[in-house]
Each structure stands twice: as C-alpha cells, then as structure tokens.
Amino acid sequence: SAIGKYSFTKIGKYFLPKKTINWIRLNIKNNLKNWKKENVSCPKLSKENRYELKALYFKDVSELKKLTEYNYKEWTDFNSQE
Q1: Structural domain range at position 56
Q2: What's the structural domain count of the chain?
Q3: How far is CA 40 from the centre of its chain?
Q4: Does 42 fall in a domain?
Q5: Residue 38 pLDDT
Q6: Sequence-distant (≥ 6) Cβ neighbours of residue 16 within 8 angstroms
Q7: Are residues 51 and 74 in the same domain?
Q8: Using CA atoms, how far apart are residues 62 and 54, in angstroms rounded to an integer?
Q9: How far apart (Å, rounded) are the C-alpha atoms in residues 31 and 38?
Q10: Through-space distance between the first and last CA atoms of the chain, rounded to whole angstroms
C-alpha cells in the first residue's frame, strides 16, 4: 500500500495546515528544552524506611544483578555488606 511507503510526518504534511505543523514543531522544541529545567525535590527518606525498602527489594536486585551480569555499583544500598 502507498501508506506503508511514507512516514507519519510526511503524511501529516498533507493533512495538517502549515500553521498547525509549525505550532507542533515549536511546542516539541520548547518542551525538550525545558524538560530538565524543572526543579523537583523529594523528601529525604528516614533510615528506618530506607532499611525497609532495602529488605523488600534486596532479593529482586540480586536476581537483576545475576540476569544482567552487572554489579550496579551506584546502588550503594544494595552493595553494602550490612
């Protein structure tokens, strides 16, 4: 079929007005530029909550390490010998 030969962007150019295409393009660019600028703060976990989460996910993380053959050294909670 003819549709299979064209990408969605090329098909969109035929059906959408140029004003709409420019609006979409501008919004995508602005969203990508501002994506990382949003400041998000999370509350600090208490030690008790941190230990509970570690106990809850320790087995899963161990299996993930075996499956991926990667040590995830940046996940310090799951690499300490405590």
Answers
A1: 47-78
A2: 2
A3: 15
A4: no
A5: 67
A6: 24
A7: yes
A8: 11
A9: 11
A10: 62
Q: Length of the chain, please?
A: 82
Q: Taken in order 18, 19, 25, 26, is the CA torsion positive or negative?
A: positive
Q: Are residues 8 and 33 in the same domain?
A: yes
Residues 51 and 32 in one domain: no
DSSP-based helix, strand, coil % in the chain, nearest 5: 70, 0, 30
pLDDT tens over the chain, length 82 residues: 455 566 666 777 778 888 998 998 899 988 888 777 767 788 899 999 999 999 999 999 999 999 999 999 999 888 876 4
Look at residue 3 in the predicted model and tell me its pLDDT: 56
Beta carbons within 10 angstroms of residue 41's beta carbon: 5
Residue 24 falls inside a structural domain: yes
* Structure tokens, 75: 């996940």
CA distances from 43 to 3, 40, 49, 71, 74 (A): 50, 10, 12, 27, 20
Are residues 33 and 7 both part of a single domain? Answer: yes
